[in-house]
Write a structure and sequence with these properties.
The protein is mostly beta strands and 676 residues long. The chain has eight helices and 33 strands.
């Protein structure tokens, strides 16, 4: 009865629309939700949010832009970017932004998504780099954030053994300076819940200074930075998308050298790097990095420190985590050389990673081919080429003294309304790389072969369809899989947008993998594990003040011959954002019922600026949150957030040190931003 009432309520309310700003927020939100299941819980997408906020304030000049700049727009495919520059080359500068609709691949949705972030006007005051201009025209952005779980977690009690040594508050401070597109600088300070103020107020410090457009020096970054080249098989750090409803996202858009501005404490380099124009299309990016990583270490038979893995969480709360902090030195040096001419680009990558102590294999059989030693050399070559309506891309990579990996694919414009993508990948079980984020089914692109194919079909302004299928095999054993295994993933989606104020989405996704049986048997065998998801979502812009979003999602999980379990999530979002108002906000009320963690459902949640959340709805209960923003002054804003899970039929929430007595878990968050 309750499910029926919620369903009726859902259908009656409807959802969403599009002022230009709202359009882009929903576009990013759709992409984030599509990859939520494939991202770790602590994945930080600050860089993506930062870029969009920056472009909203200083739009990109389309007549002076570069391929690298357009690659930062996550909703543009490499083929669309290539088609844009072919249009500029053949017909000259754009006279009106709406001329984008005449370019192959630029449908109405794409153009609407771009409009808030692009312009054709000049911005000449930033062209001259002088100290006076930097002082007078430079922009400063200071943000401070506080967050805390209101209930006391077990780790903060006076336990005799392992416990959290610090306080439950989370603090973050970030400062950014920008002088046009020529100079940037940033500092990020972060303390996680449970971390202790050990002779300094924050646990994590990050910063950099970056210069651009200095004659032959295209970019120069000193401090923390990321490297993103090719298809992510040899050298890629920082943010990366995977498979999603936009099938063209399977082809990565490499951004090269970039300053690092995230709070993720693992995926970056620390040192210096520069991209230098050499001669007629040739450019080189040498880089060096010196860091200390977290690692759990032991002593071998010879009395030497060794480790089998690196801790990537960046958490330093318990005695063990503090002991492991910065215990492993990492030294990296290398270079990337690239040649670009018209629609063709090819690049080569070579670098070596050296570690203070030796890596050893773990005792598990599936770990037999993991990296050992204290030095690793990686080589790679990548390419992309646009021929008429086809964008070809690929990369091959080799870890010296061990395995290799390669992928190759194409994006094809079959007609003005149909786009296809196909990618084949083959990653050896003994391929070793610490900076590998290529497209894959596994969290680590290794020990995998797969073929991906997808279609985007946009027959008219009202309808858009997406389909993809991905078949994959794992030639060697995996965690909880004691035999070679295989599987597939299929997604189909339809979006109907009859007008500017209403949209409805239908999505079906199924995934089949294999895993060790749960039965108590003398010899393990593998069972098929099937997950399915069904989603109906609507968006409705009632007027200039109110926007509504509703969703019903059903999940199914079945392993072997066991009985299938079904879960569902129903939520209502209400957004209040009147123009020129000092206060804006949004609220969600959700009910969820999933029998176990296996049938969990993920959903993107709105948060304060520069923050984000993928809510994991598991168990049975209610979820609600409220976000408010108030403009204290022209350049001073404050955000507040309250979020709560209320579970039914349980006595504790969470596990181990995060366990809470009772059936509620709530959080508050306050953020202040000052621009000057």
């Amino acid at each position: 009865m309750r499910f029926r009432l919620f369903t009726t309520f859902f259908v009656m309310i409807g959802i969403m629309a599009n002022a230009q700003t709202t359009t882009q927020q929903l576009e990013v939100k759709d992409i984030l939700e599509s990859v939520a299941e494939n991202l770790p819980d602590d994945y930080d997408i600050t860089e993506l949010i930062d870029i969009l906020v920056r472009y909203k304030k200083h739009p990109v000049n389309l007549n002076k832009t570069t391929p690298e700049e357009l690659k930062t727009f996550v909703f543009l495919s490499p083929l669309q970017i290539s088609n844009f520059f072919m249009r500029i080359k053949e017909s000259g500068d754009l006279a009106d932004v709406l001329e984008l609709q005449s370019i192959d691949g630029y449908d109405l949705k794409t153009v609407q998504s771009l409009l808030p972030f692009v312009t054709l006007s000049e911005d000449t005051e930033y062209e001259k780099l002088t100290l006076q201009n930097m002082r007078l025209l430079g922009e400063n952005d200071l943000m401070m954030r506080f967050a805390q779980t209101l209930q006391k977690q077990k780790g903060f009690t006076d336990l005799p053994g392992n416990r959290y040594l610090g306080s439950p508050e989370r603090f973050q401070t970030r400062y950014r300076y920008n002088y046009g597109a020529i100079v940037s600088a940033g500092i990020t300070l972060d303390k996680d819940a449970g971390e202790k103020f050990i002779d300094k107020p924050f646990d994590f410090y990050s910063g950099n200074i970056a210069l651009f457009k200095l004659g032959k020096i295209k970019k120069l970054v000193v401090g923390d930075y990321t490297m993103q080249f090719g298809q992510g098989l040899t050298l890629w750090s920082g943010f990366s998308f995977g498979k999603g409803p936009d099938v063209t996202s399977v082809a990565k858009k490499d951004l090269g050298l970039r300053p690092y501005n995230s709070t993720n404490e693992y995926s970056f380099f620390r040192g210096a790097s520069a991209t230098i124009n050499l001669y007629r299309g040739f450019e080189i990016t040498p880089f060096v990095s010196f860091r200390n990583l977290d690692a759990s270490q032991d002593v071998d038979v010879n009395g030497n420190l060794v480790q089998s893995t690196v801790n990537q969480t960046g958490l330093h709360r318990t005695p063990a985590e503090i002991k492991n902090k910065s215990s492993l030195s990492q030294r990296i040096y290398g270079a990337v050389i690239q040649y670009t001419k018209n629609e063709f680009a090819v690049g080569g990558i070579a670098y070596q990673s050296k570690y203070g102590n030796r890596f050893i294999t773990q005792t598990a059989l599936y770990d037999r081919y993991s990296f050992t030693g204290n030095s690793l050399t990686n080589l790679g070559i990548y390419y992309n080429y646009t021929f008429k309506n086809i964008y070809f891309y690929g990369e091959g990579s080799k870890s010296l003294s061990s395995g290799s990996a390669y992928l190759s694919g194409a994006l094809i414009s079959l007609s003005p309304t149909v786009y296809a993508a196909i990618t084949y990948r083959n990653y050896a079980k003994n391929y070793h790389n610490f900076f590998n984020q290529a497209v894959s089914e596994s969290s680590e692109p290794v020990n995998e072969k797969g073929l991906y194919a997808g279609l985007n079909i946009i027959p008219n302004k009202r309808w858009a369809f997406s389909f993809y299928g991905d078949y994959f095999r794992f030639p060697w054993l995996k965690f909880r899989v004691d035999a070679p295994s295989s599987g597939y993933e299929i997604l189909s989606q339809a979006v109907y947008t009859p007008n500017k104020i209403f949209k409805i989405l239908f999505r079906f996704k199924t995934e089949n993998k294999q895993q060790n049986t749960d039965l108590d048997v003398p010899i393990n065998f593998i069972d098929d594990v099937k997950r399915e998801g069904y989603r109906i979502e609507s968006n409705w812009q009632a007027n200039q003040k109110w926007r509504f979003q509703n969703r019903i999602e059903v999940s199914q999980y079945k392993k072997g011959e066991a009985k299938a379990e079904f879960g569902y999530l129903i939520y209502q979002d209400v957004d209040y954002s009147p123009l020129f108002s000092k206060i804006t906000g949004n609220v969600r009320v959700a009910y969820f019922n999933t029998p176990s963690y296996n049938s969990r459902i993920y959903a993107y949640e709105d948060d304060v600026l520069y923050s984000f959340a993928f809510g994991m709805y598991s168990g049975k209960g209610f979820r609600t949150y409220l976000n408010l923003k108030y403009n204290l002054a022209k350049k001073l804003n404050i955000w507040a957030r309250y979020a709560m899970f209320y579970y039914q039929d349980i006595e504790t929430v969470g596990t181990y040190l995060d366990e809470i007595e009772g059936n509620k878990k709530s959080e508050i968050k306050i953020q202040l931003r000052y621009q000057f």
